[in-house]
Amino acid sequence: MAANRKDIVQQINNAFIENNLEKILSFFKDDVTWTMVGDTTVRGKDAIRKWMASMDPQPPQITVHDTVAEGDVVVSRGDMRMQEKKNGPAIPYTFCDIYRFEGDKVADLTAFVIRTDKGTRDRDQDERQMATSRQG
Which residue has better confidence, 57 or 28? Predict the structure, then answer.
């Protein structure tokens, strides 16, 4: 069963790349809970549809580094680049998604998504400010 669940998570990741929400939801229970840690929790397929539509997400570029299955849990970890707006820049993130299954359907998804360019931006800004203060 664990191998089958890993395959399902791979199919979900592929559906994210295809920007195919209905395919993603086909692997979820009707009353699924999706938690974006530090942001929001959405319950149920209809609420997820509304939530995703409000963001106008563009298809991400995803690289999965690890997928581990144990019992009714599958963890997928990787990197992605995603445009937050249609014509905006692709922003790098690292993710760790924890899927809890009931049978062959996802009952809970807990997603840790961390923007990875922020540290570089802050450091670059600090260096520019320091250079400006030395000149002034």
Answer: 28
- The domain that holds 16 is classified in CATH as 3.10.450.50
pLDDT digits (tens, 9 = 90+) for 25-51: 999 999 999 999 999 999 999 999 999
63: left (phi over 0), alpha (psi -120 to 50) or beta: beta
pLDDT at 86 over 80: no
- 116, 96 Cβ separation under 8 angstroms: no
Under 8 Å between Cβ of 84 and 91: yes
Residue 12's alpha-carbon distances to 15, 17, 58, 86, 89, in angstroms, are 5, 9, 16, 22, 24
Tell me the residue range of the domain where 25 lies: 2-135
By DSSP bridging, strand 105-115 and strand 28-36 are: parallel
Lowest model confidence (mean pLDDT) among 22-36, 65-79, 82-96: 82-96
Rounded to the nearest 10 degrees, how much is the dihedral formed by the CA atoms of 88, 91, 97, 102? 10
Count of domains observed in the chain: 1
